[in-house]
Amino acid sequence: MRLAVAAALVAAADLAGARPAAAAPQDDPDAGVPAVDAAPETVPEAETVPETETETAPETETETEPEAEAPWETKLRWTGYVDIGLFDASGDGAGHVQDVGHVIFPQYRDVGWVFHGDPLATAVNSRGEPADTGDVGGPSRALTFDSVDSHGKPTFLVNEVDLDLTVAPHPRVWILVSADLMPRGRNVSRPEGIQLGDFVDVDLAFADWTVRDDGGHVVDLQVGKFDSVMGIEYRVQESPDRFGVTPSLIFRYGGGHPTGVKARARLWDDAVNAAVAVTNGSHFVELFPFADEQDHNVFKTVAGRLAYHREGDDTTVEIGGSGLYGAQDQQPDDDVRQWQVGADLDLVWRDLELRAEYVRGHAPGKTDEVPCDVAPCLRFQGAYGEVSYRVLNWVGFLARADWRDADHRAGDEFLYVVDLLRVTGGVRVEIERFAILKAEYLHNHELLGRLQIPNDVATSSLVLFF
Fold this sequence. Notes:
466 residues; two-stranded antiparallel ribbon; 20 strands
């Protein structure tokens, strides 16, 4: 939605008299973004000169030609949305429990706190915020900010208020700033940590410059805080764009907004899509504790994606692969390197869409001989497959299966052991062109240990966008 608005702004600048150039490129040809109509141009009509005067008046360019610069109103636009939810999570709302006495995993008796389950499994909204980070089953040691803190009780929640400002100061340049406002409760008396209440997340702040557009080839550069280049789920992370309510279990690895510089190319009439980025750190979401927006390393992170894209009359298919390599976040040693690889598929056939991704990665903490002695270490792999179908233009259904296998350890302080299968079913109803109502049920099933955690979630979302 944000990039569609940017394209409309650049086109408006062209129509208003700036020198002709291509509109700002869309982020990806398959991003299922609800269209936001650009505001109609209001260009004042030139005064009609009587015929008798035109015959005698001298011809001057200053009297007959409009100004070359477009009016400011056609260059700047506010858009956004409000996401209001209602959810109910099983148990205490947490996706994990503490392994008290090392009964479930006796092989980890050398670690103080051992947890069974995924603390982000009980997602309640498009941001992926969990219903709770743990009270009864042990407070999370990795997630210290409990932004929702439901204590396992059903609650209404304003998930986020999104405000986007797009400016097109030049036919080949556009600037986007996006901020999310999260209204939350405040409780400074909690023994396990301070809940900060309302907070702001500036998720995007970048400039885009179209370097080349000759019809079949489009190349542009971005600088600032921009979208990830890992996988494809980042394209639908905003509430109006996501078909369902919640992200997949592996969204945390590729849905972030890194800071740096990025180049994108669409070649041979969009048959090949390529992107490469040099950033401060990984492309993890900021909610995940491994993310680090300011870098502590000289060695930066390099990430890229290459995909084949083809469109037919009824079918669109895209197959891609992505990878990442760089200094591990949240530690100063350049020799500690993390890596990540993934593959993705997006297939659209008429009103049916199939999306699938696989990801694998490792952040060693230090070395295999002395693990996790400088920073927390992480070993992960996971995948999801999602099918959505529009029965009518205004109603559709979703089914998704997720899997995540991971170990997240911080020395002898704490360890999360995760092998989780999640099944999600949902429905989407587009009430009006500015309103969408969605509902989901998430069932989490632990594949390790002898304990099934009560961590299912029923959630909903009303999205009003403008």
